[in-house]
Amino acid sequence: MENLEQNIDRRIIRTRHMIYETFLALMSEKDFLQISVKDITQQANISRSTFYAHYKDKYDLLDKIIEDKLSILNELLAKSNLPNNAWNNEVADPFFVTYFECIAKNYTFYKQMFMIKDPNQFSTKLYHVIRESFSIRFSRIDKERKLSVPLDFLLDYSTSSLLGVTKVWVENHMIYSPNYIALQFTRLSINGIYHTMKK
Known about the structure:
Blueprint: H1 2-27, H2 37-44, H3 48-54, H4 58-80, H5 94-105, H6 107-115, H7 122-139, H8 151-171, H9 178-198
Helix pairs in contact: 1-2, 4-5, 4-7, 5-9, 7-8
């Protein structure tokens, strides 16, 4: 009985992975709104009933993919968000290294998501993941230390900067390595904009 359940689970995982890969491939060829369930099932060589056994429609499929990928990113950032001062102007902050390595590893996914124009608002969801990670990080700062700007402003500024650079980096085919761009963010975080310009 246990082996039967494991085989069923493996089939479910394989089928979903096949649908996911097919969906991403189609998104590299045409706009999301132009993709139909028929396109997905024909290219994945599965029946429509098989597709609907896993997803309600293409919007549900997209939601599940985004949810899974951002959940992975969130978990990785949480692990790298532990107190760690072993970074400086020459050693990248592990938090930024983890972030950019995760984006690079899932380059095709993020490239398609940044291009997509749909009701799911991927950028907004990614924004919230990044902002929450920064919020956790800033909350670990000494409570006695007074911020020179309001916390909400600091969170919005940090999040928008990271998201904006990520989008451009992905759209430009990651011309810098994850570690290189992570080091630049580390330097900006340590020195600030004006001090960075003086160096």
